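Support request, please re-run this one:
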Amino acid sequence: MRQNVQAAKYIIKCLLVRLIYGAGVLRFARWWISRSGALVVLTFHRVLPDGEMCTTSSLPGMVVRQSTFESLLNYLSDHFEIVSLDDVTPGKTFDKGRLRFVITFDDGWSDNFQFAYPIAQTYRAPITIFLCSAMMGSTSPFWPEKVAEILRKTDDLPELKAAVSRVAVELIPSFTRQIASASGSYAETIIEALKFLRVEIRDQFIERIGNIIAAAPVTAVTDPANALMSWSEVAVLFRQGVTFGSHTRTHQVLTTLESGEVTDEVIGSRKDIEYRLVKRCRAFAYPNGSYSSTVKRAVKEAGYDFAFTTEPGSWTENSDQHALPRVNMWEGKLTDQNGNFSPLVFQYAVFGKLFLRKLTDLFRVRYFSTASSRARV
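Re-run finished. Output below.
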């Protein structure tokens, strides 16, 4: 049933893309975004060759094929400006008048070094990588991959999935409601529900479902590329001109931590990176994009010039410099129904959606302003 829903959504998206493109909306949206000197910041996580796409434990929204990434950079370098985060000035347009993109990577995966950087180097595309400074060189570093790897073993075993669900209902208060309204996969739903639990509860869940799987006769499935870069690899990329920023020390969702823990994650990561690279660390990316006014203040007081969310939008001279928008990129936002890179799909994911979001915001402001005025009469 869920596969049919996903297929229907994809068909609707394709029809919308064609309709919007045919109406000239994408061309207008592209001009509208670039006319004020706005920047579009793209977020990537992992870039993998085809052979590793089917073995990775990372969720689909984190992964781009190596060939797709190369096609995207080829397209961007032909039609836009790809600029370094070290050189950005929102509000200032280049003489060519081309829209500017900033390319960023979260987490510091080893494939950023192996596959993404060589492609970026070929197209002379500056990139920024946000590091989890206390986890560099780790294998199987993040809990979502661990959970996804465990849950993958329940795909064809309903009794195991039922046992896991019983643990989820017990430990995750909102699980029953979330699974009933989920649009993503079973693993995606569980991982999303776990993100905002206390660390000890999350660890208890992982331990218990791991024990369930360990007691069952299932085939082991592992992700051979599930590792972060080492500091020596970071040093190589740094010498080649790659910019590095902070993604905390251990990738905790900062809104779930106490103030002292937030300080340790935010300041500790900056100090780790500056010690290793002997250069000021200016940029920060919130894990999961989650922040609050308290977290944002801690990041600002830690000395970062910029901080990035996962909220879509364009970076203008009026943007909050410690709550900057980015557009997340994954294979589904870059390819057509045949799995080939599509400039049209990419334009819809960036220009079309940003433009529609802006129109929605303008309508909301005007509607509520009018309603408020009527209420005062």
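The chain has 14 helices and ten strands. Strands lie at 39-44, 46-48, 63-65, 81-82, 100-107, 127-131, 243-246, 283-285, 306-308, 327-328.
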